Amino acid sequence: MRLRISLLFGLSILILTNISAQSYDFDVTKTEELRVRDGMPNFFKKLKAGDPVKVGYLGGSITNGGLWRAKSLEWLQSEYPKANITQINAAIGGKGPDYGTCRIKEHLLVHNPDMIFIEFRVNNGSAFQGRALEGMIPQIWEHNPNIEICMVYTIAHWMKEEIARGDQTSAGVFMEPVANHYGITSIEFGLEVMKLLKEDKLVFKKGDGPSDGKIIFSKDGVHPLEAGHDIYRDVLIRSLKAIENHGTPGPNKIPKPLKKHIFSNASLAPVSKAEFSSNWHKSDLGNEKSINDDLTDRNGGIKSVFGEAMQTSKVGESFTLKWDGFMLGLTSTLAEKGAIQIEVFTDGDPSKIYDLKSRTGKTAVKYMFLDEMESGSHTTRIKLIKLAPGIKLQIGQFLIVDN
């Protein structure tokens, strides 16, 4: 049985109790730099023993190309020189936990990590009110109950006032209940950033004010510059050092779900699973090599999002997919509003029209989910009904959600 540990800004109180992961009751509306919960004893046991250790990173662009990942790995390698520590970069820019839970098996668990850092608060960590994020945890521990998990919370400009007050963000309030329920450690990077800002030692965004002698945290208010990543690394290091001797190694147990219809059986289905009409052709996704253990956006993430893809430039073309679950998602070309529209028919129900519009208005390779429905076996036909000149519709792997 794990030990329960509570830490508040570096002051540790060790409480020896036989409790399960779901007993933690930290205030989810507030944020603290470190909430240990069950800790990560399996991870530290392997590090101290000098065993091979694989560290997995799952999140968005701040983690994909962000230096905090590389810097944290370098520190682990220097702190535990006897252990052969390697990484799995399974972060993809601009993607949230709803997409992450569908791809976690294929992109991360297949590599058998020992430790997983999850970073999704900036990228819509509240997706489906936390049900998407929660769905990752059973998948991880069903694969290997000894894998340890840590949620790390990065900061963006729209979170500044909340975090300065010590409040959790609008996305984080759906992530912390998951951490409470499953006993997962969470680390808040943003409090230290706001502390330095309050002390006039930091400029949050380049151009916000005089910067002589100060840390410039970011250019865009979201993606840290190297000095910003140093802050993230330092918070992570002191948090890991504070808990490295806490907890009892052993398998993590999966409690009953916190919510109904969590994304615990989400998966990717290849584009070949569908039957396409005659005027679809295989897409050329460029020279990017097959995805293995590094999803760095070398070609804008197209290969990592699509896997393989089919494309058409002709209105009226369609494809049909048979699937099991309660929600279907598409990886596809998105464009400005009104440029691409599809009509969706499922199980003989009235059809519905979807506008494949991107958040920025620019053509991009992204994902979207269709409406949630009753769990079961379904047949969905999707027909292209509108396509602006010069744009092609590409359809990649499908996102199938069940529990």
From TrEMBL:
<keyword id="KW-0378">Hydrolase</keyword>
<dbReference type="InterPro" id="IPR036514">
    <property type="entry name" value="SGNH_hydro_sf"/>
</dbReference>
<dbReference type="GO" id="GO:0016788">
    <property type="term" value="F:hydrolase activity, acting on ester bonds"/>
</dbReference>
<keyword id="KW-0732">Signal</keyword>
<feature type="signal peptide">
    <location>
        <begin position="1"/>
        <end position="21"/>
    </location>
</feature>
<protein>
    <submittedName>
        <fullName>SGNH/GDSL hydrolase family protein</fullName>
    </submittedName>
</protein>
